[in-house]
Amino acid sequence: MNSKRCVVLIALAAIFTLSSCSGVKNKCTDCNVPGQANLTLTLTDTPPAGVLFLNFNLPVSAISLTPSGGGADISLLSTPTTYEMTHLQSDSAIVGTTQVATGTYTSLNIFVTNSPSSVFFNGSANALGPCAALRICNLSGGAPGKIAIDLTKVFGGSGLVLTDNENLGINVDFSLNNAITSTNGITLDLTQANVLTASALPRINQNPGTLDTIQGITGTVTAVTSSSLTVKSPSKGSFLFGLSSTTAYTEVPALPQCNGAPSQSCIQVGSIVSVDADVAPNGTLPASVVDIIDVTGGIDEVEGVIYPTATAGVFGMIVSDTAVPSGNATLTALGPGSAIYFTMSTSPTPLFTIDVKNLPVPSSAGFAGSGDLQSGQQVRLQVASVGTFNNVPEITASTAVLRFGTISGTVGVNTPTSTAFTLDNASLNPFYGNFLTQVQVQAYSPQTIVDNVTGISNLTAGNSVSISTLFLNNVTPPFQITKVRKH
């Protein structure tokens, strides 16, 4: 391998399985108990201005509630969990649902007792500390310990009041913008004001009877029945999704799929799927879309965001997800934030396809070959072979699947319609390319989720937004979105 390649060495974050009412391990077997309320937590992220993070691992060791009358705090997260925050700019993470004794609570406490770690792109013309211009670098910060959110300011009065059998939700937002300082070029300081804030759920423009939505929970099916689906992600944990007559099923074109139309009946233990779901008031997760990536699930896969190298035909990737049925030790060791190299196989001819999910997007336009691979795309690779260079994994891929990734910017000056708007090209990080004009964004009704604003036509120029998008090469519009969130 050419020594000019930009090598990024990433410290692997410890990833722990979620333990919640919405996951495999329930904290409540009967979520309707006198003297108890059900409290659901979700997690989001506000993007920073002027710097692009490709990964941010936030290790949360505990979450608790402080009762107003004194006494021991109430635990809301018994298992330490590391959350990858960058995709939460457009999405939400379900922390869990916990039965909490009725009463009044004055503080929500988040404990970060290990250092967060991240990967960022310096898109400026100058060095940021030790990170040279136009390079990808690591950044870590100190462990602040307990971060307390004053619930009397969130809910007013005496704080959070929970009553018998109440279903209530809280969103905790992590502001990367407030966590970044310019000391010594660029640093992380989670002790700054408003790094973590809270608000009551449901989010604006949620479907009736739901608190929030989660998207793209990708993993291996560990159990399936006519009414439920259990999916295990190596980085996010295990999730129990409800299936119903309203659940839509889709499949990735050109991969081993169902005979006939995609359906629940062709999903089996070991299948690789990606699930979108609502968060119900009681913390359960009714699936809205089950996207079947691979029915048989027997192939090692790695997913992440692409970054460039100095060698033609060789690409870098910051990993976000894996599936390793072979047990390959090199691939199993990869976690969110790991850096790898990849090349596409030369024989047989590699397959390129687009995971359009439920959007009416052509399955080949803008992603038909290696020439369409570009920085900022979220891509899932099927692994043909694994090697290393300077102790950094390098894989050869037989298949590349374009998937939905997160991009943030500000709304452009063009007047939005109900299904289209523009992003100000000056607000897009140069990592994504040199856009000379306002960049078109295509949404679809009813498939595209609109979050924190009542409709796309209600967006205005200068609004900060994050989109979950297919990033197509040399196609107009380049952004085909499944979700837009106004910050």
Please describe what this structure looks like:
The chain is mostly beta strands. The protein has four domains: 165 residues; 83 residues, Beta Barrel (OB fold (Dihydrolipoamide Acetyltransferase, E2P)); 103 residues, OB fold (Dihydrolipoamide Acetyltransferase, E2P); 81 residues, Beta Barrel (OB fold (Dihydrolipoamide Acetyltransferase, E2P)), CATH 2.40.50. Helix content is 3%, strand content 45%. The chain contains three helices and 33 strands. Strands 28, 29, 30, 31, 32 and 33 form a six-stranded mixed sheet that branches. Strand 13 and strand 14 form a beta hairpin. The longest helix has 5 residues. The protein is globular.
List keywords for this structure.
mainly beta; OB fold (Dihydrolipoamide Acetyltransferase, E2P); disordered N terminus; 487 residues; single chain; globular
* Residue runs with pLDDT of under 50 for 5 or more positions: 1-29
Supply the helix-strand structural class.
mainly beta
- DSSP summary, beta strand count: 33
Shape: globular
**Computed Rg:** 22 Å
Distinct helical segment count: 3
